[in-house]
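Could you help me review a protein record that somebody else here produced? Here is the record exactly as it was handed to me:
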Amino acid sequence: QRRVHGDNTHPAARFCGMSQPEISPCQAIGFSGSATNALCLLPDQRTVLRVAGSMLVVEGLDSGSPQILVRGAHTEKITCLALAPSGRLAASGQSGPNADVLVWDMGRILSRSSQSPIVCRLSEHNVGMLRLEFSPDERMLLTLGADNRMYIWEIATARIVAFSAITHACVCWGPPELDVKQNQTGRRFLCSAGGGTGPTAVQAFLWTLDQHNSSLASSVLATSSVSSTVQRTYTALAFTPDGRFVLAGSQSSDVIVFQVALAP
């Protein structure tokens, strides 16, 4: 498929009296995996969502299955991708000075709906995006940029719930805080980790998000059971189901365990 735009003609083509065609892709071949979470498996276990340059690609796992190419919304290369736990929403962030984050309605993409699949556009970061994480209840989205800023957004309103400066490139959501009666207090925990050598190599931060006061507070999680002389760069974080520990995977091929005290 080709579309001719006279205003975008290459100078050499204009000189020759010719118009320069714009070529629209019909298929994406290959996979680099350079973006964070560049490949996501949908809940049906048969469909994947992946990054291809500035496009999103939806395709089945079966060889030769048709692709859905989502293009034209991002103006720069996509650097990170996230899929909500239910598969209902996805989010993608791009590089460049206008590091917008787009939240997508996967139902509209999969059904090839004529309605725009973009739920909202989040424009606050001014350097490339590093990581995106949906909250477990899918009401909020965490965005982490190379501008050393972390935002928590309410997806329904595209409103900033909380903000903090941060130097870590790895972050994850944790459990909600519970009171003595096991009721949720409206506060939720997160964890972040960076890397390096010395004490910072065995440190992680526990964050407490207070939605009522729109605040984020952090405290240090440390472990003394591993060597601090090893160069570590954390690439994956996860809370255990009971919220008592955080597991941190690093490029040094080890997993560090942090103990978390979530007292009501």
Residues 1-18 have pLDDT under 50 and may be disordered.
